[in-house]
Amino acid sequence: MKLNLFVRCLFLLSAALAPFGAAAQSPAPQPAGPQSVTAPSGDFSFASVQEQAKQLATKPYVKPATIAASLRDIGYEQYKLIQFRHDKALWQDSKGLFRVEFFPAAFIYDTPVSLFVVADNKAQPITGAPDMFDFSGTKLNTPPANLALAGFRIHYPLNGLHLDEVVAFLGASYFRPIGREQVYGASARGLAIDTGLPQPEEFPAFRAFWLVTPAPEAREIVIWALLDSPAASGAFAFTIRPSTRTVIEVASTIYMRHDVSLLGIAPLTSMFLAGKSGPHRDDYRPEVHDSDGLYVATGKGERIWRPLANPTTLTITSFGDNNPRGFGLMQRERHFTPYQDTNSSFERRPSLWVEPIGDWGEGEVRLIEIPTDAEKNDNIAAFWAPRWPPKRGEQRDYRYRISALADDAVLSSTGRVVATRVTSVVPDKPKQRRFVIEFAGGDLTVLRAEQPVDADVGLSSGKLINKRVEAVPGERSWRVFIDIEPDGKKPVDLRAFLTLRGEPLTETWTYLLKP
């Protein structure tokens, strides 16, 4: 099985690179399918986007035109030096709190998108213009006469009186939200198709966006989007509420052109190079990651924590469920010391938490981990996969919330995993492995060391040699030591949680040990 790495440079939108821009010499936005996306003359609403998506799915897929090769050849360093002029932002002269700035189509963002602004139920096109950008820092001889736009970012007074980025839409169906005092990290996507399967993966893309003009006193903004791919088209409504925990409410309608083997709903992508459990490498930074675990709240109320890994081979893990309550790629380590990186601010990267609205039925949360030796690669993906993939002509509707948060401890009142450490061998026992899992929070913060806290441990294969639980002095946390002996070349699926007199105290820790 072969799977491409998610190239991280596609999504570098941190504050240090905020003044993005690039030149383009192609015409204004190109077709989003068999026909160009145009502004209708009548009233426009989300139902209009749904109708466009529905009609698009009845026609053969047409690959959208891209920009000229000379624009694709613009380098990364040159691209980031071309800056958007803040005084050209959408709604710059309004009394409202929101502003929108744009990304031109160039470099690796070579497929233009159609952009519209909606006011009083009327949609008007947004076109690129040379005076939107400052080219003075580049080696371009003259500004291009025509511009095509590839995406946009929304600004809001998030951290103070000045305007901050809160979300950016750029590249395929990717978007990145952040909350107060956060920096860009993990990404969300509109849809995933056949991700991690032997056949090639499809990358659906947003072809058009409608930016709904917010009222002057509005604290939320609405974006509508049209998605397209060879297998499906779709209409998406995003209601974005910036705050300490920025929340995006998503309503999506998917129309299938043909059958697919796997449909990924609310897909998330992230990067994990190294953490407390390894892998060991020559680097002054102990940990390098945007997320350190997958968190799942099942339909039956169980809370599951799966620490992320940078595996030696492609690893796919599934968590079967019925009507899940939530899942997310979380960044739990919130201190500088484990990272020692003054430039990347990994401790400020958001956790992305997905909460279904309504029942999603049977399916699974699927986690994909791809080997990587560089932090520029997004090598982690997680999404919901319905048990029965959709067929040609079928319509699927999904609603959910995505939260960019740093306080995921409030998602559950039970104890949670705060560290996973793995040793290669137990001393003098070369066939054995030792796991040290640290739990904190919930009732664990008030339990004395003499309390009979125990660990419920299970494993799918091999032998449990020993388990031991101890309170960590002065830390208000507890550790469980688990020694196992794998059964030859069989993988071992481990599960553990702490109990007090038979009652669960913590979420369930899970780990896949590969031979």
| Gross geometry | globular
Mean of residue pLDDT?
89
Low-confidence stretches: 1-35
What percentage of residues falls in helices of 4 or more residues? under 10%
Question: What is the end-to-end distance?
Answer: 18 Å
Q: What is the C-alpha radius of gyration, as a whole number of Å?
A: 24 Å
Can you count the helices? 3
| Beta-strand fraction estimate | 35-45%
Major sheet, described briefly? 15 strands, mixed
Structural class assignment: mainly beta
Q: Count of DSSP E strands?
A: 35
Secondary structure: elements and pairs:
Blueprint: E1 6-7, H1 46-57, H2 69-72, H3 76-81, E2 83-84, E3 99-104, E4 114-119, E5 122-126, E6 133-134, E7 149-156, E8 164-170, E9 174-177, E10 187-189, E11 192-193, E12 205-212, E13 221-228, E14 232-241, E15 246-256, E16 263-270, E17 272-274, E18 288-289, E19 293-297, E20 303-307, E21 315-322, E22 326-330, E23 351-356, E24 362-369, E25 377-378, E26 380-386, E27 395-405, E28 416-423, E29 433-440, E30 453-459, E31 463-472, E32 477-485, E33 492-500, E34 503-504, E35 508-513
Parallel strand pairs: 4-12, 20-35
Antiparallel strand pairs: 1-25, 2-6, 3-7, 4-5, 7-8, 8-9, 9-10, 10-16, 11-16, 12-13, 13-14, 14-15, 15-27, 16-26, 17-18, 19-20, 19-22, 21-24, 22-23, 23-27, 24-26, 28-29, 29-32, 30-33, 31-32, 33-34, 33-35
